[in-house]
Amino acid sequence: MNAEALPANMKAMVMEVQGRPLVSKILPMPVPAAQQVLVKIIACGVCRTDLHIMDSELSHPKLPLIIGHEIVGTVAQLGTEATKLKLGDLVGIPWLGYTCGHCKYCLRNQENLCENALFTGYTMDGGYAEYTVAYQDYCFPLASMYGNPSGAPLLCAGLIGYRSYSMVRQDAKRLGIYGFGAAAHILIQVARHQGKEIYAFTRDGDTKTQAFATSLGAVWAGDSTTASPELLDAAIIFAPAGQLVPKALKDVDRSGSVICGGIHMSDIPSFPYELLWEERMIRSVANLTRKDGHEFLALASQVPVKTETTLFQLHQANEALAALRNGKINGAAVLVM
């Protein structure tokens, strides 16, 4: 069931061992299982989670592994039981790649916590390649406006940002964002669309990123060690820096929430109870649900969300990862095939 003749092989950047650079490989074309589709990749975003995997901070990947979980592509082949998509459909493939549907978390609509989940670019091969396979139920239809590299960051930076944001009280007005990278530059557009005031906290002295945040509508941008000029109703931390948790608690008002939006964070230092008192809350965000995906992608088209991207060719994946690690990317890095 081919839309076009498929090649026998594909190019991919492969992690053979954690802690070492990716290796360029020519691999056999993957074959979709019954409920899967083969996707020809247009672009794949480069996420900080990819660095956490390579640095062994996420310690149980399949090996060898094709990382990458912010995938935009078109359906090139259908598995024998794949009936929900058709050849040529434009789809996005996120981090959540499969859930079992029968564990206690799935049964209470918390599939993001599934005990048997599989994750794209971690326990399943991902998007640093020309093709990949994905379960049809975990592919999101994309609007045509996102059928290009600009759509890739929506599939993780956007989705995790949205899930983090959904944990904030709806009546919150002042929102602090700590770490102004790919997720923040998308989320600020959604939050501004809904009338929020955004306070952006960056690495100390990073005036370039602070200017970028201001250009996107932040009412204030400054160093992460600087006290917020106003008490915040909520704070979302995207930077993987545990020391920002007590700092954010100082910045939020009574009953304010501090949402930790990353999959990995350095240790949180001890802090006095008075920072947590007055019903302040700390919450973490784990993965995403398909409901998050459908809601956010519909909202992104309405805003409409526009992503700032720095493009790299597939063979430049190691350079893209190094640029992300060193804070050289405004917005999001994206590999193009």
Number of strands: 17
Q: Count the helices. How many? A: 8
Write down the secondary-structure element order: EEEHEEEHEEEHEHEHEEHEEHEHE
Radius of gyration: 20 Å
CATH class of the largest domain: Alpha Beta
Percent range for helical residues?
Answer: 10-25%
Biggest pleated-sheet summary: 7 strands, mixed
Anisotropy-based shape? globular
Structural class by sheet pairing and helices: alpha/beta
User: What is the CATH architecture annotation of the largest domain?
Assistant: Alpha-Beta Complex
**Fold-level CATH name of the largest domain:** Quinone Oxidoreductase, Chain A, domain 1
- Mean of residue pLDDT values: 96
The tally of structural domains comes to 2
Please report which band the strand proportion falls in: under 5%, 5-15%, 15-25%, 25-35%, 35-45% or over 45%.
25-35%
The CATH superfamily title of the largest domain: Medium-chain alcohol dehydrogenases, catalytic domain
Alpha-carbon distance between the termini?
23 Å
Oligomer: single chain
Parts with pLDDT < 50 across at least 5 consecutive residues = none
Describe this structure in words.
The protein has eight helices and 17 strands. The strands form four sheets. Strands 3, 4, 5, 8, 9, 16 and 17 form a seven-stranded mixed sheet that branches. It has a six-stranded parallel sheet with strand order 12-11-10-13-14-15, with helices on both faces. It has a two-stranded antiparallel sheet with strand order 1-2. 21% of the residues lie in helices and 27% in strands. It folds into two domains: 177 residues, Quinone Oxidoreductase, Chain A, domain 1 (Alpha-Beta Complex), CATH 3.90.180; 126 residues, 3-Layer(aba) Sandwich (Rossmann fold). The longest helix is centred in the C-terminal third of the chain and has 13 residues. It is of the alpha/beta class and 337 residues long. The two termini are 23 Å apart. Helix 3 crosses helix 4 and helix 3 crosses helix 7. 48% of the residues are buried.
